[in-house]
Amino acid sequence: MTLETIVNDYKAKTSRSRQMYEEALRVMPGGNSRTTTFFDPYPFYITRGQGARIWDADGAERLDFNGNYTSLILGHAHPSVVEAITEQATRGMSFPGPSEHEVKLAGVLTTRIPSMEVVRFTNSGTEATMNAVRAARAFTGRSKIAKFEGAYHGTHDWVLVSVSPDVDKAGSRKRPKSLAYSSGVPDTVLKHTIVLPWNDAEACVKILEKHGSDIAGLIVDPLLANAGMLLPQPGFLERLREVTERLGIVLIFDEVISFRVAPGGAQARFGVRPDLTTLGKIIGGGLAVGAFGGRAEVMNYYDPRGGKGRISHGGTFNANAVTMAGGLATMQELTPEAYAKLEALGERLRAGVKRALSKAKQPAQVTGLGSLFWIHWTKKRLSDYRSSRPADAERPLRTFMGLLNEGVVLSQRGLGCCSLAMTEADVDQFLAAFERVIGKES
Q1: Catalytic position from the list 56, 157, 254, 275
Q2: Are 47 and 146 contained in the same domain?
Q3: Which residue in the list 10, 21, 42, 152 is annotated as catalytic?
Q4: Which of 10, 281, 302, 384 is catalytic?
Q5: Are residues 66 and 88 in the same domain?
Q6: Rg of the chain in Å (alpha carbons)
């Protein structure tokens, strides 16, 4: 089935969303505030979410395997989260000072993540990684930052480098060039950002040793989620830990997404202890949130007592009472039993996708861990950003749009997740829809 046919089917079902999009174009560039949620011909406008489902402006019901890009681990409008947020909102939503929920949520996080000796809260994952990078620079007195090709760490300048680079311009696989991901990123950022190849430990060590005396921190998404949920090869993260420790480089784990895979995040699952950790998404109960923390000696650069704080960290809504209440309620629901259920749902889905692709003889594969998954439209051996690019560049979009028409929400590039609101029947409904969509491609 052609993309045009799929889009025409979508248009026929979303007339009210089209009207809202036309209204939005008059007051916002592109009609939206999130580039990641936009797609042609226009996005569908969501009016309600409950449990594992969302409803759009035209009244269509869809199973939500996007979860606001993995944020809603409990699903939409979970009763305990709604109760906590509502109760706090009646007593005040934000204050010119800290609240009890902030202390409690910090206690939960530092207990679950032993490497996070102390923590501070922000309003987004972007702010969390920005402050972690700043802490690394302050602690080491160095200026450069290292990151991986294909990794996304938010929208501040220092990490908007080689996120989805054109491979023809990106240099060799073992020595990737630093390329701006967005207009407006200064050339000086590229000169101060070192790009590494994922899952190539020897190449990484050589690059880090060459620039080591200038590198303040290495920021790592342990799942390389933006490039397709590409798990680290055995020993890879351990090698990064060894070389960064030896060279005095602050190792930062960006666990904004990977915190889903275990009560203590990917670092607990893989047994590697970073110096700093950044969090977001699930720790806010569906509200805007971020956090960064780690070794006390590094984080103490944010300590304001006695005027000794070396880094100023403001933010009117940092650790606001409503977000902290929602986050605390969410974390209390994430018991070992909850993680076991998420793991089982994820395994059921990934196994079902694999069977469907094999049955339909489709050139694709699925990756993931825990409740997370990514459908790849390539038969290449997946190891890094370059190997994960689809053979047919349009295929992920056709799949995304086809699933929308079948009543299922994924992400445009193939990322998906399960939530605790889901059942095995919901997973099976996804798999049935997926089989119908890929069946039209055969």
Answers
A1: 254
A2: no
A3: 152
A4: 281
A5: no
A6: 22
3-state secondary structure of 276: strand
281 is catalytic: yes
Indicate the residue type of 398: R
Q: Quote the CA–CA distance of 28 and 34 in Å, as a whole number.
A: 11
- Same structural domain, 188 and 317: yes
Instruction: Report the pLDDT averaged over residues 240-253.
Output: 98
CATH of residue 88: 3.40.640.10
Distance CA 330, CA 78 (A): 9
Structure tokens at 267: 């670092």
Q: 118-122 and 415-417 as β-strands: parallel, antiparallel, unpaired?
A: unpaired
Q: What average pLDDT is seen over the chain?
A: 96
Which range marks the domain in which residue 326 is found? Answer: 79-333
Of 333, 355, 381, the last residue of a domain is 333
pLDDT of residue 395: 96
Contact indicator for 291, 279 with CB cutoff of 8 Å: yes
Return the structure tokens found at 37: 């949620």
- What letter would DSSP give residue 389? S
- What whole-number distance in Å separates Cα of residue 390 and Cα of residue 394? 8
Domain termination residue (choose one: 318, 333, 348): 333
* Predicted local distance difference test score (pLDDT) of residue 442: 66
**What are 12-70's pLDDT values in tens digits?**
999 999 999 999 999 999 999 999 899 999 999 999 999 999 999 999 999 999 999 99
pLDDT digits (tens, 9 = 90+) for 129-185: 999 999 999 999 999 999 999 999 999 999 999 999 999 999 999 999 999 999 999
Does 176 share its domain with 67? no
Residue 175 identity (one-letter amino acid) = R
What SS3 string covers 65-105?
CCHHHHCCCCCECCHHHHHHHHHHHCCCCCCCCCCHHHHHH
Contact criterion met (CB below 8 Å) for 390 and 376: yes
Q: Do you know the residue count of the chain?
A: 442
Q: Quote the number of domains for the chain.
A: 2
Q: Return phi, psi of residue 293, to 5°.
A: -170, 175
Both structure tokens of 359: 């049955």
- For 309-334, b/e burial (b = at least 16 CB within 10 A) is eebebeeebbbbbbbbbbbbbbbeeb
